Structures are given as C-alpha cells and as structure tokens.
Amino acid sequence: MDSMIALLNRSFLRRMLSRIFVALDLGLLQDPIYINIMLGMSFAISAEINFSLMTPFILGDLGFSNDRTATIMSTLGIADLVFRFLSPFVADSLGISARTMYLISLCLLVIARTTLTFFTSFESVMVVGVGLGMAKGVRVVYMGLVIPSYVKIERLASAAGLQMVLNGIFLLMFGPIIEVSQEAILSMCERASFARLRNAGSCCREGGDGKEGRKRIILEVAILTTVER
C-alpha cells in the first residue's frame, strides 16, 4: 500500500513538472545559442542600468559642477534620442542584422565608458557623452529585436519571459557585487598608499636629500587623500 502511494505521488509530481516544463517552454534552456544570447543580454542590461545610475556621481568625482553635469547628461540624452531614430535606417541601408547592430552598440558602449575615465576636461567629456548617447540609442532599438530574430514566433513569449526573469536575477546580484568589489579595491588602494607613505618616510629619515624626501611624502599624502575620497 505504501509503495503504491509513493508511486502515485511520484507520478503526480512528474506530471506536474512536465506540465510546468511544457507551459513555460523550458526546452529553450537546452539551446546553447539562446542561453548565450540570454546571459549576454542580461549582463549588458544590468551593467547599463548600474552605469546610468552612477554616471552623475562619476562626473561629480571628475570635478564637474552640477550645471556642467546636467549639460553632459542632457547632451547624452539628446544623442540617445537622435540615434534611436537614425539607427534603423543605417542598419537597413547597410544590410546589418539586429544581433550584429546590438553587438556593435555594446562594443561602442564599452569603448565610451572606458574612455570616460581618461578625460577630465569638459569638452572631452562632452564628446564622450555624445558617443555614449549614440551607443545607447542603437542598443535600445535593437535590444528588443535580438530574441525575436532568433526564436520562432510560437516560442517568443516563453523566451521573452525567461529573459525577464534572468534580468531580475542579474539586477539583484549586480548591486551587492559592485559594492563588495568597490570596497575591496578601495581597501587595497589605501593599503598600497599607506605602504608607499611609510616607505617614503623611512627614506627621508635615512638621509639623502631632505627636500626630495619631503616632496615624496607630500605626494603620497595627496594620493592617499584622493583614494579616500
């Protein structure tokens, strides 16, 4: 009797799991190309949202006033809107697929975000802001076309739903990971600055050019102060 009940429970659970598998079309998770697209898009969306939220703070750390920060952000938004309108015509005239355009936009975003850390003048950052807006405009247009261009129309709803679920998981994970990484990097930089400051002080005490030793100490203090900010 007990074995029959266990068998019935097992068969009921199996039927429920099979129905869930069919209803959600989880067979998509067996497709490596779809998995690759889904993971890449979720990572890109999470990175974009976090970077967009931190952009005003990055500009503030670069020494820009609120007015100049607002000007840069407005220029970025205008470039974004303009290229949302222009990018479909460009892709159509060149015969570029949606996945290729999305990949190009991600490469441009990586380049623009990286170059932002190398410039401090207002004019240079404005140019980088225009580049960011262009890349964001292209990305927004083709982000919603990547999955439909690969998945059949019958499976599109399930594919989009799974993508949204993974987006939510990535967004929940990204914030704490960035915070922990930032604290670890700042702690490492502070330890390195303290070590250099200690070495500079010992060199000054050991003799040599007193002015050089004092200059080195002043430089290390400035570095340490910048890191703490």
Automatic annotation (TrEMBL):
Keywords recorded for this protein, A-Z: Membrane, Transmembrane, Transmembrane helix
Gene3D superfamilies per the UniProt record, alphabetical: MFS general substrate transporter like domains
| Molecular functions (GO terms) | monocarboxylic acid transmembrane transporter activity
- The regions listed as transmembrane in this protein's record are 125-147, 159-178
InterPro entries in the cross-refs: MFS_trans_sf, Proton-linked_MCT
Q: What is this protein called?
A: Major facilitator superfamily (MFS) profile domain-containing protein
Print the organism lineage: Eukaryota, Metazoa, Ecdysozoa, Arthropoda, Hexapoda
